[in-house]
Amino acid sequence: MIDWLRSTRGLMALLVVSLAVNVFLASMVIGRITGEATQSTYTKRSIQAMLTPLPDAKREIVRRELNTAMPQMRQQFAALQKVRTALSEEMVKPTPDPGALERNFLAVRTHASAIRAELQQAMIRALPSLSQEERRALVQSLAQRQSGGGIALP
Prior knowledge:
Blueprint: H1 2-6, H2 8-51, H3 56-91, H4 98-126, H5 132-145
């Protein structure tokens, strides 16, 4: 085992793993510091871009529904940030607790899912007030924003 670690391949493998872990942890720390401001700005830009093809009156209807969901989404996002911090702290311990890692990863998934559910519920409330062509334009706008082509339209 020691000979393997002293070899060039072994050292290179350890360097790559170390670099990957450091990049991951650095992004979590940066996300923790700038996360809320960045998320808010990114979310606003994404919503604006998504709503661009709609007429102003319809844009306001959708925005109103999204704004109704925002307090709960912000609350879930704050909880998500706390769990991410706890997860990153657990990950850098000399001996991470597998149970704590599992609980924290589960909590990350739970909060992220709750944020998506709030957004989806807002869209469910807003979509009936849009015409078929407006909904089509909204779907096309979403498809353009997603990599890989997004949603196929009939």
